[in-house]
Every structure is written in C-alpha cells, then in structure tokens.
Amino acid sequence: MTDLVIRALTSSDAALFTTFQDSPFVGRAAFGQAYTSTADGGEYRPDWSWVALRGDTVIARAAWWGGPGDTEPVVLNWFDFADGEAEAGAELLRRAPFDKEYELIAPAGWRDDPAARAAVEERVAAATAAGMKPLVERYRYRWTPGCPLPGRTGRLTYRPEPDDEVILDVLRRVHASTLDAHARKAIEGPGGLEAAAREELEFFHWCPSPREWWQLAYTPDGEVAGLHVPAHNPSGPCVGFIGVVPEARGHGYGYDLLVECTNFLVEQGAEFVAGATDQGNAPMAAAFARAGYPITQEWVHLA
C-alpha cells in the first residue's frame, strides 16, 4: 500500500481539499456550506487545512476555522475521510499541530436517520481514537422572518452596562450554578470560576458587534435578573449569551431575555438570528422552542 502522507495545504494547492467527495449526511457541506480557501477570498486558511494522501488521492481531510483577526484557529469544524480510512483520519488529527475542540455538525434528528447516524458515529470514533473526548451535544437554532417574532413580556427592564467589571460579576454569579458544559469545563480547570467568567467575556469582545449592545436585565424592584448579549459573530447575527443569576431563577426569565435579544437584533436589521444551547439545558431549550426558534442542526462537541 502507498505510504500515507499527511500535511497542511498551501495557497498554491488549496483546491486539493475539495477533490474529496463531500458527505451528503453530516458536516458543513451537508448544509450547503462549501470549503473556500482564503487564497481565493474564502474563510478557511490553507495552513489550517490538512489532508492525508495516498499517492495523489485525498483520503482524509480536516479544516480548522478561525475569525478574520485570529492568529490561531478557534475550532475544528470540518473533518471527514474515505470509506475504510478512519485510521488515516485519526492519524491526521494526531499529527496536526492544533489542540482545538471539534464541532461536528449534524442534521437535526440525526439519530433517526441510519446513514446520518453512521456518518456521525464514524467521525466521533475517529476523533476519539485520536485522543479527543465527547464533551456535549448542542441544539442549533435559526430564527428567520418566516417564524413568528415573539412579543416582549414587559416583566424586566434592560440597560446597557459599559463596565466590564460589572459584567464579570454577573457572569461569575451565572456560572456559579450553570448547566452549560463549556462553562463547567472551564470552571473545572485551573482558573476555576474566574477563568470561566473571563473566557465568556473574551468571547463577547471577540464578536465583531458593538460593545454597547450588551444589556443587563432588572426586575421591577431594581435587582439584577441577568444578562443578554445580542451579537454578530463572523457568520452573522446571533444570540451571544443568555444568563439568569441564581437568585432570579424559577420565573422563566431566560425566555424574557431571549425574546428581548431577538427583538433587539431584528430592530438592528437582522434577517436571521442564530442561537444554540446544550441539549441537557432543558430550561433554555424550552425557551427557544417557546420563542419560535426551530432546531436546524445538532452539533456534537469533542475536546
């Protein structure tokens, strides 16, 4: 058998990535999202795109994504391999010099489709063989004008908060008792709760949307109920963050915050609003459903 060659692409051969047949069941291509190299004005950088070859044939590939200003990739979100080449895919992940989370993009209800389920499970198995561990599965939502626009409840008032230290204090309170797997993972790390709060704040600043959009929510008696962050990520408008402080929980305020965030973005001209939550976060999943957000994808995260 021809020796396996694993390497990054260059600007001169970035088109090699697309010689591999796209999966019709899972991954970005399954949702009509093409691999486009920055060498041709696209979003994937050749040196963050790796292939495994036998001879001149691509048998496995992986692309790590980052925002326009990032100096290192943020996440792996494109990974596939030819039939019978799962080990080549795993070896590609072992050799590539990026220790980043894998976001596997799957269709909603993928477990009910035998072909999609097989495709997901093959990729999870290969990533696991490369040393990754399953972290969480998340629902991905997309509100569009074809969905009803949920009406504001009027139960809370909202004000921009310009002081990052105040935002950090609210994030600490929210994350002190959270169902979010990524926040819990950060809390379990060496920096604890403080690191988790600052990691969230860094994400807010990373988003290319105005700082003044961040808003604290207050109850009628003037107490902080939570925080919502309408945002734009590099792909467009999104629900950047919804968080209710522990002492204000039990009143369904997560729904209020989501509705306010949605309306705010629509008032800024958003023609769609993306959102996400852990599948185990039943209160937030219920809020998205009540607000009329359809589930469009399910993402399997491995770290």
Automatic annotation (TrEMBL):
PROSITE patterns: GNAT. Transmembrane segments: none annotated. Residues 156-303 form the N-acetyltransferase domain. It comes from the Bacteria. InterPro entries: Acyl_CoA_acyltransferase (IPR016181), GNAT_dom (IPR000182). This is N-acetyltransferase. It comes from Streptomyces badius. The lineage of its organism: Bacteria, Bacillati, Actinomycetota, Actinomycetes, Kitasatosporales.
